[in-house]
Specification:
This protein is of the alpha/beta class. It has helices at 13-25, 30-39, 68-73, 85-97, 144-151, 161-177, 223-229, 247-262, 310-314, 327-342, 393-397, 413-421, and strands spanning 8-9, 42-43, 55-61, 101-112, 118-126, 133-137, 184-189, 197-203, 209-216, 269-276, 282-290, 296-303, 349-356, 363-371, 379-386, 433-436, 445-451. The strands form six sheets. A three-stranded mixed beta sheet has the order 3-5-4. A three-stranded mixed beta sheet has the order 6-8-7, with helices on one face. The protein has a three-stranded mixed beta sheet with strand order 9-11-10, covered by helices on one side.
Length: 459
């Protein structure tokens, strides 16, 4: 992320021009010229806003190995473009991604010129040492090409300790994905900018399998149902499958939480534990569950509705006050309200929100928030068809459940896609698309763009 940019201005355009001509004719004076120019720079007013101003120049500073043009080529910001904070943040990210500079070694400072344009000074701190050798000691079950792909480190590249450490983590993560949970990877050389070699010491360890899975604390839910949700699986018949991957523990944890939320247990906590067994190739996975109390619906409300009364929309819902909170029912209600709007030409979104009720432990208020209800339905504008070189336009139009001028049925756009796909004359690997185009005048008439790719049969 760019550092805070100082906003400065030059008191004399004459001296600016002089230094510019000197630097262009005598590159050896570049550094001295830059320092001298800075001596003529005075701070601008603190409230000066650079956003949107024209970029006069982009000047790399501190680079000795990489040329200024190489650095500028990695940036989105160019002379003549407009100053934009987010673009500069992306420029800093791109420069760091080259692995040419030390971590945090890119700083962009902005200077306001007398003509109102902005000069950017890109201060860089380069990685001076290069990688002479790369070694992976102890690797037996991963090929050299795979290790090189994981680390991205090659001979002759700048020595980058941060990239080397990320490479170490990537190797260890791959071993764990392969079931070698106890594998260790140590960065022996390459942790300092002055190192010349990158050396990883790898202890692979055995392939670890799951001997058993235990659910502790499950009282109000079905253990059998929870087990069907788990990605982690134990070995079968003592040797088939069951390879342990620690990455699946978080997936399982979230699946158990979602299951309990569906039952109304909104305070549930799930903690996975890996228990080593005497056999170094086996572990037992334990999920500790604190169920908490079930929540009940104290009230159900609808907000944001302009085109239809809340009472009319509430009649579409199944969730009732006094019942236990059920996430699946809430999600179905939200979809039902959205479809009700969509078939009448309103492209709304419906988001369920939960609020605790003060003074009522275990009670929750469910609010269905209708978003983007403008109070007037959209209508079909032009129907634009692209890609039909042979297929007649009327053949495609006959499959559409709408015509220009009609209320736009948002809930039937998927139906239009499927009907076109079922014709059998368009490429199934690149199926037809039906897209509502945004209207720059914010008109209720929305153009529909249909893209198709004909197969040989269609052609």
């Amino acid at each position: 992320m760019p550092q805070q940019r100082r906003k400065e201005c030059c008191p004399s355009s004459f001296w600016t021009g002089v230094f510019g001509r000197l630097l262009s004719h005598f590159p050896a004076l570049a550094f001295l010229g830059f320092v001298a120019a800075l001596m003529l720079i005075h701070p601008a007013r603190a409230e000066e806003n650079l956003q949107g101003k024209i970029i006069a120049d982009v000047i790399p500073v501190g680079n000795r190995i990489r040329t200024a043009e190489q650095i500028r080529s990695k940036m989105l910001t160019r002379p003549g473009s407009r100053y934009d904070d987010q673009t500069l943040q992306e420029d800093v990210r791109r420069l760091h991604a080259t692995k040419w500079f030390v971590p945090g070694g890119v700083q962009i400072l902005a200077h306001l010129d007398p003509d109102g344009r902005v000069t950017l000074l890109v201060h860089v701190q380069e990685l001076s040492q290069t990688v002479e050798e790369v070694h992976y000691l102890g690797a037996q079950h991963l090929r050299l090409s795979e290790l090189q792909q994981l680390t991205g480190i090659r001979k002759g590249e700048p020595m980058n300790p941060l990239a080397n450490e990320l490479g170490r983590q990537a190797i260890q993560r791959r071993y764990q994905e392969e079931g070698r949970y106890f594998a260790t990877v140590e960065l022996v050389e390459g942790s300092r900018p002055t190192d010349r070699r990158v050396v990883y010491r790898i202890v692979e360890g055995p392939v670890v399998k799951v001997a058993g899975i235990e659910l502790r604390g499950v009282e109000q839910a079905s253990q059998a149902r929870i087990r069907t949700l788990l990605v982690t699986q134990k070995r079968l018949l003592g040797f088939l499958g069951g390879k342990f991957n620690p990455m699946t523990l978080e997936i399982d944890r979230q699946k158990i939480i979602d299951y309990y939320h569906g039952l109304g247990y909104l305070d549930v906590q799930v903690t996975p534990e890996v228990v080593p067994l005497p056999d170094p190739g086996l572990v037992r996975v334990v999920y500790h569950v604190r169920e908490g109390r079930p929540y009940h619906v104290a009230a159900r409300t609808i907000s944001g509705a302009k085109s239809f009364s809340p009472e009319r929309l509430e009649a579409l819902t199944e969730l009732k006050p006094g019942e236990r909170y059920d996430l699946r029912v809430v999600q179905a209600d939200a979809q039902r309200i959205k479809d009700y709007y969509g078939m009448r030409g309103y492209p709304v979104a419906v988001e369920p929100r939960l609020y605790e009720v003060a003074g009522q432990p275990g009670a929750v208020q469910v609010q269905y928030e209708v978003i983007n209800d403008r109070g007037e339905p959209d209508r079909v504008g032009r129907i634009i068809i692209e890609g039909n070189e042979v297929t007649k336009r009327r053949v495609i139009l006959n499959e559409l459940p709408f015509r220009p001028g009609q209320i736009l049925p948002y809930d039937r756009l998927d139906e239009a896609r499927m009907r076109l796909a079922r014709l059998g004359i368009f490429d199934p690997e690149d199926p037809p698309t039906v897209e509502v185009l945004p209207n720059e005048w914010d008109s209720v008439f929305k153009d529909i763009r249909i893209r198709v790719k004909e197969t040989r049969t269609g052609q």
